[in-house]
Amino acid sequence: MDITEFRKRGKEMVDYVADYLETIEQRQVYPDVEPGYLRSLIPEEAPDEPEAYEDVIQDIERVIMPGVTHWHSPFFFAYFPTASSFPAMLADMLCGAIGCIGFSWAASPACTELETVMLDWLGKMLRLPKDFLAGTEGQGGGVIQGTASEATLVALLAARSRIVKQIQAHDPQRSEVEIISKLVAYSSDQFCATLGTTPSCAFDRITELGPICNAEGMWMHIDAAYAGSAFICPEFRPLLDGVEFADSFNFNPHKWLLVNFDCSTMWVKRRADIIGAFKMDPLYLKHDHQESGLVTDYRHWQIPLGRRFRSLKLWFVFRMYGLRGLQAYIRKHVGLAKEFERLVRNDERFEICADVVLGLVCFRLKGSNELNELLLRRINGARRVHLVPCQLAGAFVLRFAVCSRTTESRHAQEAWRHISELASELLRGQKR
Amino acid sequence: MDITEFRKRGKEMVDYVADYLETIEQRQVYPDVEPGYLRSLIPEEAPDEPEAYEDVIQDIERVIMPGVTHWHSPFFFAYFPTASSFPAMLADMLCGAIGCIGFSWAASPACTELETVMLDWLGKMLRLPKDFLAGTEGQGGGVIQGTASEATLVALLAARSRIVKQIQAHDPQRSEVEIISKLVAYSSDQFCATLGTTPSCAFDRITELGPICNAEGMWMHIDAAYAGSAFICPEFRPLLDGVEFADSFNFNPHKWLLVNFDCSTMWVKRRADIIGAFKMDPLYLKHDHQESGLVTDYRHWQIPLGRRFRSLKLWFVFRMYGLRGLQAYIRKHVGLAKEFERLVRNDERFEICADVVLGLVCFRLKGSNELNELLLRRINGARRVHLVPCQLAGAFVLRFAVCSRTTESRHAQEAWRHISELASELLRGQKR
């Protein structure tokens, strides 16, 4: 494919993407396929010779779409949202074209510098303590990780490295293995200090945990993967109080801040802590500026060596929405969750199982776990909406998470009408 | 931005991307900016209100491009290639639009199933032993990791988990910590068994290492991050001989197989080994098919929970190039490296420092390390081509890696003429 054909095919793809998202509501949100469906639809080996582009494109509807769970359908209420917006998609196209690998400042200065400044912008939007910002003279700063799991692992390794060094500074005889064998990581059953757990969007009390961690010299990492985006709204910011005690903090703009996956933003108070755990400096990655202290080499901040130019997505989204646009988006989703909560509360057959703080409603039919498992099976079997369950204190609970950028009141209302009808059918069947 | 505007802006972006790549040769390959250049070019905070799209787009040339190292310029010969092709970029647009998160089969069956089948396709292209393929009944199979570092870490953790279980099966009293404290990982100074090291593209002798690993019950992981793509050519496939002894193998199609970053493909012989190290099964991720043994839940194969629909890139590239097109691409790059090698060898002031096996030429001026450091400084200072050095047995060596998809003979020739002139200037200066 030459550049001329790419111009044509690229524009066709823009239209395909726009058509897909414009009509996604008409697609069945959860697919009908059985395991192994795809293998039989395509050849067993790659072709020897190039195929026609038209054949590839036709196979999207023939092979791929029948097996897609449509996360951006307004009837998708499962898991948590994964973000999507047009500005982020445009930025991703640019990111693919520049195609630089930003493992060091020199490998593409713009890639590193925009990331540092965007993490400062975002930190300010969240009103993070100044310690977490890079600025021009700060000791802290932010980095984009792929996922919250990676951010947590990085925090864990940085914490381990710091404490081993501290202990060895006092007692150089003690081996790393012996020290590590005695280290303890404290966590709840959702791991580390969490703001907005996945099952029920519950919040740890970090204003209580924080001072203990600080007094005991423990590394405190706070994960707000889903909830973090909401903290750009002043009314939700108190949920983040206590972050001043933390050593590291992360959340996922790729969940709820309109930045397409992957973009998990992480801040540390002392960048030396994180760099100390990961530093690697072969000659082929050295460059003139690295000893100056002026530049950031992000390969020292993460597990992978390579990294894409992901801050472009943040930049486009922040500028095309503005802080107010992003706040309005969060508030709309929270409003839809509250609306759904009211519908549930007005039906005395149901109960709400956890405070509805943000965009997640945990609910169930009053009655046995089996009854609720059956209800969920019927809901997902009907394929009109898609939900997943969680377990809360032994109870089987249904989760209604407002996910899609295009979910409106009518979708929440229709989802409730549908769920409520299925519940009626189910309860009628049980009475017989 | 609504859908109508996205159609317009998306098409403009396709043209911007095409223009950028069409004229990239005219851009200075390595930027002039100093550390901190970007912060002063943009505001200190995100805007409150949305900005005009035109302003964002204008800032690409004003803010971003002056700080970009152009990895896809045909005059970029640094590090190793990072892949880029039009079919991969089109697939990435589609990936962004579908925007599913493929942590389980149910989260988007097409995402999981295409990945498994594409890794089988690619495994067959490499003639991997059948043990590494999933097929419909295999015990092995492949997965896309983000980078080779992640693949290596996953292999290490899987190896550790397997041996701990084996030891505890014989001796249940021994604690995990005690066992781990006695474990040893063997590696060269480039780590694990490597086919195609970064400094010089050297190859470990895996036909010798493999039988020892197997006899001693050691996990053998082979990393062929850069070189792996070449093994689709029969003439380079012998370099992979011995892979039959390995437990896991990975390479990066995002380096040299025209698939944009990130796409690091990894295969294991026994998927149970890898799943055993990472399994996590909260209720909200459970689905009907997971106990059937028929489906793959890729979250058990990796550090992150979330994952994009990256196999679309492989599918588009394999079909739009065909195996022969991909082989021709590899051979073209190797041919260019050989051509550059001949130019170096014909100049008696220079020496070749390592066998030129694939697309990398390691060379230096006969003489001191200081002389070569000076030469490299002048080369990169002139900004017409970009190279990085490496250290080989104490010698400071220049690396000429054929990187861009659009590098042709004339670029290699022009690069050599330029380097050779700078060497002449330098040597004249030294004689004075």
UniProtKB/TrEMBL annotation, chains A, B:
Pathway: Catecholamine biosynthesis; dopamine biosynthesis; dopamine from L-tyrosine: step 2/2. It holds the Pfam family Pyridoxal_deC. Its EC number is 4.1.1.28. GO terms for biological process: amino acid metabolic process; carboxylic acid metabolic process; catecholamine biosynthetic process; serotonin biosynthetic process. GO terms for cellular component: cytoplasm. It comes from the Eukaryota. Its cofactor is pyridoxal 5'-phosphate. It is an enzyme of class 4 (lyase). Keywords: Catecholamine biosynthesis, Decarboxylase, Lyase, Pyridoxal phosphate. The keyword Cell cycle does not apply. The modification N6-(pyridoxal phosphate)lysine is found at K255. One of its GO terms (molecular function) is pyridoxal phosphate binding. Belongs to the group II decarboxylase family. Homodimer. This is Aromatic-L-amino-acid decarboxylase. It comes from Electrophorus electricus (Electric eel). The lineage of its organism: Eukaryota, Metazoa, Chordata, Craniata, Vertebrata.
